[in-house]
Q: What sequence folds into this?
């Protein structure tokens, strides 16, 4: 009787192990990697082919993506965004106010001539903070990477 119960338990255990390995998709399950600021409820799926370095940074070769929190410290969201452009010695290619999940945001493309770099930036206004998402690539490669960067930007989620 004891051997029968042991065999049944062993068989059940093997079934569950096999189910977990193969029944849930195993290696065929696509895992989307995300950068996030969980305390503010903000996340973004990183571009296809990029590697996640930490919860706030990703890269592909020498190109980087980051997400950082900037306290407003009594300043307006617009003042913080405009000040970031002035301090960065950049040329604004495009700048468009928008809403992401009902939250005020600004999407921009910037060029940094001294570094031959272009960036897609998204500023998100969340309470007393501005959250900056930025992807930087060489200017000559921007057109090649722009579709995956824009797809990543479209994946931004902001929980209210």
A:
């Amino acid at each position: 009787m004891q051997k029968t119960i042991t065999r049944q338990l062993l068989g059940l255990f093997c079934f569950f192990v096999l189910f977990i390995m193969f029944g849930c998709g195993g290696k065929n399950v696509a895992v989307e990697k995300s950068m996030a600021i969980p305390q503010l409820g903000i996340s973004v799926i990183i571009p296809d082919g990029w590697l996640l370095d930490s919860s706030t940074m990703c890269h592909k070769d020498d190109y980087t993506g980051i997400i950082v929190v900037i306290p407003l410290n009594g300043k307006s969201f617009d003042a913080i965004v405009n000040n970031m452009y002035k301090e960065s010695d950049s040329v604004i290619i495009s700048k468009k106010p928008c809403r992401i999940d009902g939250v005020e945001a600004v999407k921009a493309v910037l060029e940094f001539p001294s570094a031959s770099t272009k960036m897609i930036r998204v500023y998100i206004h969340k309470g007393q903070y501005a959250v900056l998402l930025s992807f930087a690539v060489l200017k000559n490669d921007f057109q090649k990477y722009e579709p995956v960067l824009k797809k990543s930007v479209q994946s931004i989620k902001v929980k209210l």
Remarks:
- The beta strands are 34-37, 42-45, 51-54, 57-60, 63-71, 91-100, 103-112, 117-126, 129-138, 157-158.
- Residues 84 and 138 are 20 Å apart (CA to CA).
- The two ends are 58 Å apart (CA to CA).
- The domain at 35-158 is CATH 3.40.1000.10 (Protein Transport Mog1p; Chain A).
